[in-house]
Amino acid sequence: MTVPPGRRERKKAATRQKIADTALRLFLERGYGAVGIRDVAAEADVAVTTLFSHFASKEALVFEQDEDFEQRLTRAVTGRAPHEPLIPALRREIQALVRHCTGDGAAPIWSMIVETPALREYEESMRLRHAESLATALAADPGLPQTATACRAIARFAVDAYSLAREAADPEAAVDEIFEMIDAAWEAATPASATRA
Q1: What are phi and psi of 195, to 5 degrees?
Q2: What's the rounded Cα separation, in Å, for the pair 163 and 68?
Q3: Which pTM value belongs to this model?
Q4: Is the dihedral angle over the CA atoms 122, 123, 126, 127 positive or is it negative?
Q5: Second label for 155, Cα 20 to 30 Å away, from 11, 61, 140, 189?
Q6: In the predicted structure, residue 3 carries a pLDDT above the cut 70
Q7: Alpha-carbon distance 148 to 155, whole Å?
Q8: Cα angle value 2/12/33 (rounded, 5°)
Q9: 8-13, long-range: CB within 8 Å, 24+ apart, which pairs?
Q10: What is the pLDDT, as a whole number, of residue 195?
Q11: Are 80 and 149 in contact (CB under 8 A)?
């Protein structure tokens, strides 16, 4: 059973969300380069030190759900039911993330990211980190017989599927198409003597 967060945790989460929402609004209104950390802190009515206690960098303000996305990817592996196949579980999670990031209002945010080198670099490093976390979860699962290299490759494919689908005209169809290839690659990496995960 999950224990609901206490008052202090709720207050911290609300402050974090307020800072992120304020930053995103200012970035979209004025342009990412025209807004500084002090501007965000002043507009959110928090101290700069408070902002940095929630976000390590200006770029992190744009990707405020970074940690949640990373945890969701690893939970797709670690939280699936016994004997539930891996690839469909991963596909469902990637599909949910793509829906979230292609929903109403997402296009201006992704345009800003594409047009801003610092944000593109941050997103690339974030994707690599997510892939490494996912690969670690795959390699640690005793029911998955693949090598560490296969786990890393599939993790990269899955995280890249999210990026490629997000940019496609039909994101959900793109996820399906990409995961057919991922499924084939996972099958090919499974030792003949092992039961398919």
Answers
A1: -80, 140
A2: 16
A3: 0.84
A4: negative
A5: 61
A6: no
A7: 10
A8: 125
A9: 12/54
A10: 45
A11: no
- 196: phi then psi, degrees, rounded to nearest 5: -65, 135
Mark out the alpha helices in the chain (DSSP H runs): 7-30, 37-44, 48-54, 58-62, 66-78, 86-101, 106-115, 117-140, 148-167, 171-189
With 0-12 / 13-18 / 19 or more C-beta atoms within 10 angstroms meaning exposed / middle / buried, residue 155 is: buried
55: tokens are 């976000």
Token pair of 104, please? Answer: 């109403």
Residue type, 81: A
State yes or no: pLDDT of 137 exceeds 90: yes
Residue closest to 135 by CA, chosen among 197, 77, 183: 77
Q: How many residues does the chain have?
A: 197
pLDDT tens for each residue of 14-26: 999 999 999 999 9
